[in-house]
Design a protein that fits this description.
By secondary structure, this protein is mainly α. It folds into two domains: about 70 residues, no CATH class; about 180 residues, no CATH class. The chain is built from eleven helices and two strands; from the N terminus they run αααββαααααααα. The protein has a two-stranded antiparallel sheet.
């Protein structure tokens, strides 16, 4: 009789929904976003990680929402960060208010930093990577163009991409909004960088980020909502400032700028590598 009675007082195991609700509360996220969090988990667990979910950062792929809200401990599956959202047919367009004041402030920081002695691309490893990128683009453009002008312009835009990412920093509302981009770059770095002593590792990793077409725009202010517009306008600003009336195709100029952005992301990833490369994979999933 007593044995049967003990079961009445057995503690009920919390459901995934309860655990997620508590997690959002601890994280300071409004309970309004609970359903979005649950939707993101459901899509990822059903092998649909790029299904759009409306989140605190605007419409974003389910996988990105999991990263933004730090929901990975609640997943019953492991996310493959080596696959880019750009490889999915689903695309979340820009939905949201573009912050003009943040953009203007970023352009001012860019001007000051790019022309100063504190330009972060004045560094041997960055310069080597930019030189390799410049040489690769030069082999693709018409030999009739002025060699020195092309070399100087491509280098300037590559450097500008890196500096632009630095200048964006204060305009980002919260660091966690870059969580999905950070994880994607980490996956690329882990797969391409084996020996830091290799003087080509830096440029090789950045080249792979660009080749994989990672959506670096999502890491700009505005995230998935308006980050793409923010970064593209940043490119147009740098392009007109540094290389007006350029003869090479705009797509190649964008490639140079984006390579610089990728260099910044790889640099940041390598700085964190001692921490993320030792991360333990969860031994068991949280089950409701």
């Amino acid at each position: 009789m007593i044995a049967r009675g003990v079961g009445l007082f057995r503690r009920r195991r919390a459901s995934t929904e309860d655990l997620v609700r508590e997690h959002l509360e601890r994280s300071g996220v409004s309970p309004f976003w609970l359903q979005s969090a649950l939707d993101a988990l459901r899509f990822c667990e059903s092998s649909q990680p790029f299904e759009p979910v409306f989140s605190i950062a605007g419409p974003a792929p389910a996988r990105s929402v999991v990263a933004l809200m730090k929901l990975e401990p609640f997943l019953r599956v492991e996310i493959d960060w080596s696959i880019s959202p750009s490889e999915s047919p689903l695309w979340v367009g820009a939905v949201g208010h573009f912050d003009e004041s943040a953009f203007d402030a970023t352009t001012e920081r860019f001007r000051e930093l790019y022309s100063s002695t504190d330009n972060p691309t004045i560094r041997p490893d960055v310069e080597r990577a930019l030189r390799d990128m410049r040489d690769a683009i030069q082999t693709e453009v018409s030999p009739k163009l002025d060699f020195d002008e092309v070399a100087s312009g491509v280098w300037a835009l590559g450097s500008a991409g890196y500096v632009w990412r630095v200048a964006e920093g204060p305009a980002r509302a919260a660091k966690h909004l870059r969580a999905d981009v950070v994880k994607e770059v980490e996956a690329v770095v882990a797969s391409t960088v084996l020996d830091r002593g290799d003087d080509l590792f830096f440029g090789r990793a950045a080249t792979e980020v660009v080749r994989r077409n990672l959506l670096l725009e999502a890491g700009s202010p505005g995230g998935w909502a308006t980050g793409g517009e923010f970064l593209r306008r940043g490119f147009r600003f740098a392009d007109e400032l540094l290389w007006p009336d350029a003869d090479i195709p705009r797509s190649r100029r964008w490639d140079a700028f984006l390579f610089g952005v990728a260099l910044y992301e790889v640099d940041e990833s390598l700085a964190r590598r001692p921490a993320w490369s030792r991360r333990r994979k969860p031994s068991s999933a949280v089950r409701g």
